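input
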Amino acid sequence: MSAVLTAVSALDERILNSYAVSTAAEIELVMQNARTAAAIWKQLTVKQRLKRLAQLEALMLAELDQIVALLMNVTGKVKTEVLLAEVYPVLALLRYYKNNAAKILACSPVYTSPLLYPQASSRYERHPYGVVAIISPWNFPLQLTLNPLLTALISGNACIFKMSELSLPVGELILQLLAKLELPGNLVQQVIGEAAVAQQLIDFRPDLVFFTGGVTAGRAVMARAAQHPVPVILELGGKDAMLVFADANLERAVKAAMYGAFSNSGQICVSVERCYVERSCYGEFVTMLNTAVANLKVGHGTEADLGALTSLKQFEIIKTHYDDAIAKGAKASSPLELHGRYLKPVLLWDVTHDMLIMREETFGALLPVMAFDNEQQALALANDSEYGLNASVWSEDIEKAERLARQLQVGNWAVNDVIKNIGHPGLPFGGVKNSGFGRYHGAEGLRQFTYTVASVTSRSRLNEEPNWFPYSETRYLQLRGFIDVLFGPGTLLQRIARNWSALQAFRAYASLNLRQHWQNLLIFIRHKTS
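output
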């Protein structure tokens, strides 16, 4: 009898459903079926794929309230958070690719020198990998499953996804939505389980693995995939810095810090987890933050700002970071309070870089604040991290803010805004350092779900090429002269003049369309150099 996972509501711990864990034999069959579906799907043009997927937008809008209700139950998010952070990003990405994917994935001709490749054309094409395995996390189960899944489908791949064991009803929802589209059978399938099932899925050798999650799990995925080998895209954690300068709009920066740190109760990979404030406005800023934190509401529905913790296991890390900071001298806006699954947000100030809360990913509703004295120190503090996902710089001097932002060791940055930049469907998203590698969203993200095939087509009617056998000393000298004409010192006329005899061997090699031009050029050069 196979094992069973039970899905529980993050709002009230009510049992939502039970799901059988996928066996190895079932995963193997899923992979076989996916390969069959991928062979059918890739034959469609990008526009044909988009046409079949476009109906998803109308389906999601028609069932919007039901989707929101389910996501609230599964994740504990407040209602507005589900709408803005789960549903909107999927609709925005789908609309962006609807308008741009065909152009992004189009065959690209490349200039080909008629001297080196006479009567030849060159180009490169994007081909789908085949079967993409998507392993998604519990913090944004709809967005962080559907967005890479849709990207893979638009690129021509079949998909197998594995949700977090905390998010299984969302996987069920995704399958129900996609079942209403005109897609080949088994184009999108789900496997169910914990880490062992993810390992088995990788062992059945998908053609690409897309993983979103923590750095420890990301390393395990990468190590497993390397055994086969299978390429991976890793979107891992963050420790995002917010740099606030004295010339910033402090009222806006305070409100942004609240949203950046406490949205989804801090359970976001791009949460503001480190706030650095210029010393001249540090005291004022901390006072404003304290007032703002006190006004935040914790609960559910449409009135609350912070919802429940999706994973109670995460509270152990949050508490460890809080206790460590207090023990090392940080001040707190309040004690750390967890009521059921609802965590009261806490502001910490006078923190230092030897505290865990400034070194490790917290993934919870804590906002640490630290002062800096100048630009150089602000940059050094922000870059003093193993992570490099997102960051923000706050100043009304836009030129200064952008100059500093470009020196941050991150994959993404924003000036005078937080978090929202990663939702831009046209911008590639991903990290550096321990925040992973590879990108999704935008043109670059779409292409990452394909591989490049380069091609050269010759239309030459000659029976041989000058680089073919047999070799000889004479041919070596001719080719040496030809290389000197192309790359040697001096003007073109000088290079041709000193290699005139060698060039005679290549007259037949010139493009038939350019032969007369080549002969005329030789006559002209002979006349000029005689």
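quick obs: The chain has a mean pLDDT of 94.
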